[in-house]
């Protein structure tokens, strides 16, 4: 009772840690009106424990109890419709769940009237308290059950009849999990939600509970396979011990109809098998793969297949032996064929060592996929699928669709999307990605002058192929939030819903996700919808716009701003920015020729500046900073304005979120967790804005027409304060510090102060922001005083809180801001920052802003 009262007093519901994702089955608001329309029992047709129809029965029971507090009995029927247990439900309305085949066996007459379903499809019919949920196969029945539960969870208990077949057969997720922690990328490469749920210390974890919970989430949105290990694959994955462990993971997946798939290292026959070669045309190599594949299928008879990254970023592949990529892919296809498995072979093939920007104006990494795969379309076996990243470079905030989709006509293809926000804020920034995916999927490539949307190419419709679909790099981890941020889970949800049906709207699935994840409280749904829908455009604005890519530090964490890191190296993510001009000339007439890789209508559009959309201008063209866009602005002024506009949107997010405090479904744990990230994002968006603007102002020497860039009237630069124990420090890259410098403690054990007299500040109430750097190795402490009053004390502990890539440097990755609101200041007060260094972190401070209400600087 006491704790109930306490909860009521704080206005928060019981804490939630996010583990259940959108499958919380929390009590719905209009449970009373629904109660009368619910069945009283669940009938499962020919269910086997451990398989999806059985799971569907359990989920229906759990869900209806959670949503409405109504306990349903489960009545199991055998293949002829006879009760399996001794306690068949007596009378009342039932929800019947099973496969179409099982239903046909027990209800032949009714079954004759069912609509046609394709692979994995389901039929759902709810009428006056009875429901029928049938799957074309076992997992189809589970998909149907989850679909109905999603409706019920939104308080929708109306009658419905629906037949749904997924648009594409391949709806996979990729995990980039390493067998072992360490190396350059930790336990999950580009993972921001903790360590691998599958592997630890070179082995499959003994406890695979999380694998089952993950599969449950995936099945609920129609996803059907998980590649459990990194495409930069460890050959040890194929040792007998590891294979046994993989079988244990597959056992956890199976009840949800989720299949296991494996990433392979192309050189395994040599490095693991001890053969003298891994040449794909060498019979002993083929035999080695056949044997390994048989061993896997002996343990995991329903394994989905393989994923291979070859001849890319240092990975071995067929080209090592002058064989084609098709020779490589087909070798796996042959081993898999007798087992019904498929091989997803990645098109992310390029050379990151020899591209030279200075010597060769026509060098271009974007061309690589088409250059390598062209001419191979006739060569792939029919269980090969080429997995193509959505854009020609690498998961950037804005890329044109990869032209390779238009080149492979006979060969099945899948699109690779990235749920883990590698270049897009690493889950420390809210960026809802579905609107971007929709644009890519709806893009019309005009193959042979006919409508050829990406989505119809990958589904197989456009070229009449059986296989094809979606691969999403998800990279969940052991964190209970899965991805490291509650709000980021909308991306996983939307990915699954889109892969099933690319016709759904990004806002529609978002609203559904919010209702299930938090509550269907009108304001909760509207506000989170708004925040999410503005997030991708805002991120694009405050990071990199006009198609220039994200401008993250591509040599370090792919996170904070460092525009100079794009150029001058062979990674080929160039901007070619100099004192006068910027952009990649990818035209045929004068540039790298990349534009010509598209079918003629699209190629013609991108070839000319006049017909290239502004948001891809710098992707396709090299232009002066003074070039005038279709919007009427110059390129440089657009940069300045967009960065200000994007960062301004980020400033609105914390207050929007705060407006939901105490609303239904917003418990304290998730509230605080999200608020922390949004405040952080608002601060880091300013770091982005200023870094990029300073950088291009410095390069172009063209001032901002509105006089904002480089002019910060509310800031007090730390290096201009009176320093005791602190010394000025020149930051690299220079643009990552206001005024190019910050202060650091003289030694890593000096407690230091920076102080200033607030002579020019009028007595009043202000927000005080401190910009500082929170580095990976150390937990400095900062204290802020105004007069004799301590305003705040905080630690440099982001490395334990935010999952983003850590950086040991004072740079755009570690630059951050803390804001203290409503601070009373008297003219002439002394403002003081006291820094206590720790480890390698010398309590760095960039500046302090004294902000009158409504101003952000
Ligand atoms: O974007 C790059 C990433 C690598 C990744 C690679 C790939 C798994 O930085 O971490 O490696 O793409 O997709 O293969």
UniProtKB/TrEMBL annotation:
Q: What parts of the sequence cross the membrane?
A: none
Domain annotation Alpha glucuronidase N-terminal: ranges? 21-148
Lineage, top-rank taxon, reads: Eukaryota
Main subcellular location: secreted
Which subcellular locations apply to this protein? Secreted
Residue ranges of domain Glycosyl hydrolase family 67 C-terminal in the record: 484-708
Instruction: Name the chemical reaction catalysed here.
Output: an alpha-D-glucuronoside + H2O = D-glucuronate + an alcohol
E.C. no: 3.2.1.139
Q: Name one Pfam family in it.
A: Glyco_hydro_67M
Q: Which SUPFAM superfamilies match?
A: (Trans)glycosidases, beta-N-acetylhexosaminidase-like domain
Q: Cross-referenced InterPro entries, in alphabetical order?
A: A-glucoronidase_C_sf, GH, Glyco_hydro_67_aGlcAse, Glyco_hydro_67_aGlcAse_N, Glyco_hydro_67_C, Glyco_hydro_67_cat, Hex-like_dom2
Q: Signal peptide span per the entry?
A: 1-15
Q: What does this protein do?
A: Alpha-glucuronidase involved in the hydrolysis of xylan, a major structural heterogeneous polysaccharide found in plant biomass representing the second most abundant polysaccharide in the biosphere, after cellulose. Releases 4-O-methylglucuronic acid from xylan.
Q: Which family does it belong to?
A: Belongs to the glycosyl hydrolase 67 family.
What's the name of the protein? Alpha-glucuronidase
Originating species: Remersonia thermophila
């Amino acid at each position: 009772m006491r704790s109930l009262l306490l909860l009521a007093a704080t206005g928060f519901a019981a804490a939630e840690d996010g583990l259940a994702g959108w499958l919380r089955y929390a009590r719905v608001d209009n449970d009373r009106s629904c109660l009368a329309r619910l069945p009283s029992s669940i009938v499962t047709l020919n269910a086997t424990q451990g398989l999806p129809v059985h799971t569907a029965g359990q989920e229906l029971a759990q869900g209806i109890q959670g949503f409405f507090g109504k306990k349903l009995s489960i009545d199991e029927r055998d293949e002829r419709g006879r009760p399996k247990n001794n306690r068949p439900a007596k009378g009342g309305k039932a929800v019947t769940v099973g496969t179409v085949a099982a239903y046909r066996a027990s209800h032949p007459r009714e079954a004759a009237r069912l609509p046609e379903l394709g692979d994995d499809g389901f039929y759902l019919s709810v009428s006056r308290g009875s429901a029928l949920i049938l799957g074309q196969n076992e997992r189809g029945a589970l998909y149907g059950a989850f679909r109905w539960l999603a409706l019920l969870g939104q308080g929708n208990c109306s009658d419905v009849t629906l037949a749904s077949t997924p648009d594409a057969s391949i709806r996979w997720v990729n995990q980039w999990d390493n067998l072992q922690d360490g190396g350059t990328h930790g336990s999950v490469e580009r993972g921001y939600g903790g360590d691998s749920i599958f592997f630890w210390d070179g082995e499959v974890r003994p406890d695979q509970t999380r694998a089952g919970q993950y599969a449950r989430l995936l099945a609920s949105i129609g996803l059907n396979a998980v590649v459990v290990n990194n495409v930069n694959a460890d050959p040890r994955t194929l040792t007998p011990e590891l294979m046994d462990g993989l079988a244990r993971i597959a056992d956890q997946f199976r009840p949800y109809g989720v299949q296991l798939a494996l990433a392979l290292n192309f050189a395994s026959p040599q490095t693991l098998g001890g053969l003298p070669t891994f040449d794909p045309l060498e019979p002993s190599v083929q035999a080695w793969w056949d044997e390994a594949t048989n061993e896997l299928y002996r343990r995991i008879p329903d394994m989905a297949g393989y994923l291979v990254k070859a001849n890319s970023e240092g990975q071995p592949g067929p080209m090592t032996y002058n064989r084609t990529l098709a020779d490589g892919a087909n070798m796996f296809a042959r081993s898999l064929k007798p087992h019904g498995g498929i091989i997803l072979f990645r098109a992310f093939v390029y050379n990151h060592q020899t591209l030279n920007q200075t010597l060769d104006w026509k060098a271009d990494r974007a061309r690589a996929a088409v250059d390598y795969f062209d001419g191979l379309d006739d060569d792939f076996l029919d269980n090969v699928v080429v997995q193509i990243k959505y854009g020609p470079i690498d998961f950037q905030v804005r890329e044109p669709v990869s032209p390779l989709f238009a080149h492979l006509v006979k060969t099945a293809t899948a699109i690779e999307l990235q749920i883990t926000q590698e270049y897009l804020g690493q889950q420390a920034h809210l960026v809802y990605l579905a609107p971007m995916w929709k644009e890519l999927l709806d893009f019309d490539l005009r193959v042979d002058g006919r409508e050829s949307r990406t989505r119809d190419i990958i589904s197989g419709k456009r070229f009449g192929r059986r296989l094809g679909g979606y691969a999403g790099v998800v990279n969940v981890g052991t964190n209970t939030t899965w991805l490291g941020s509650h709000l980021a889970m909308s991306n996983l949800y939307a990915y699954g819903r889109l892969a099933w049906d690319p016709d759904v709207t990004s806002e529609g699935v978002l609203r559904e996700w919010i209702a299930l994840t938090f509550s269907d409280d009108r304001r909760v749904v509207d506000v989170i919808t708004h925040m999410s829908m503005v997030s991708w455009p805002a991120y694009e604005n405050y990071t990199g716009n006009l198609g220039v890519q994200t401008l993250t530090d591509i040599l370090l964490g792919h996170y904070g701003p460092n525009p100079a890191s794009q150029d001058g190296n062979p990674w080929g993510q160039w901007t070619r920015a100099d004192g006068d001009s910027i952009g990649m000339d990818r035209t045929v007439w004068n540039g790298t020729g990349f534009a010509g890789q598209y079918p003629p209508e699209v190629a013609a559009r991108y070839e000319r500046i006049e017909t290239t959309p502004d948001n891809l201008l710098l992707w396709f063209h090299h232009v002066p900073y003074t070039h005038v866009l279709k919007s009427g602005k110059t390129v440089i002024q657009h940069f300045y304005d967009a960065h200000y506009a994007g960062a301004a949107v980020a400033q609105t997010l914390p207050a929007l979120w705060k407006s939901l405090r105490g609303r239904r479904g917003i418990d304290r744990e998730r509230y605080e967790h999200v608020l922390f990230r949004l405040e952080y994002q608002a601060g880091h968006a300013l770091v982005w804005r200023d870094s990029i603007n300073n950088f291009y102002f410095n390069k172009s020497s063209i001032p901002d027409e509105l006089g904002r860039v480089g002019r910060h009237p509310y800031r007090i630069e730390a290096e201009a304060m009176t320093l005791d124990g602190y010394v000025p420090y020149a930051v690299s890259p220079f643009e990552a510090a206001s005024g190019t410098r910050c202060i650091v403690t003289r030694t890593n054990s000096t407690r230091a102060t920076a102080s200033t007299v607030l002579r020019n500040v009028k007595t009043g109430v202000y927000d005080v922001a401190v910009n500082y750097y929170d580095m990976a190795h150390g937990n400095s402490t900062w204290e802020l005083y105004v007069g004799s009053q301590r305003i705040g004390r905080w630690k440099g502990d982001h490395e334990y809180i935010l999952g983003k890539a850590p950086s040991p440097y004072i740079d755009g990755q570690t630059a951050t801001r803390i804001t203290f609101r409503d601070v009373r200041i008297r003219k002439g007060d002394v403002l003081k920052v006291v820094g206590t260094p720790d480890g390698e972190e010398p309590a760095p401070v960039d500046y302090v802003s004294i902000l009158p209400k409504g101003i952000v600087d």
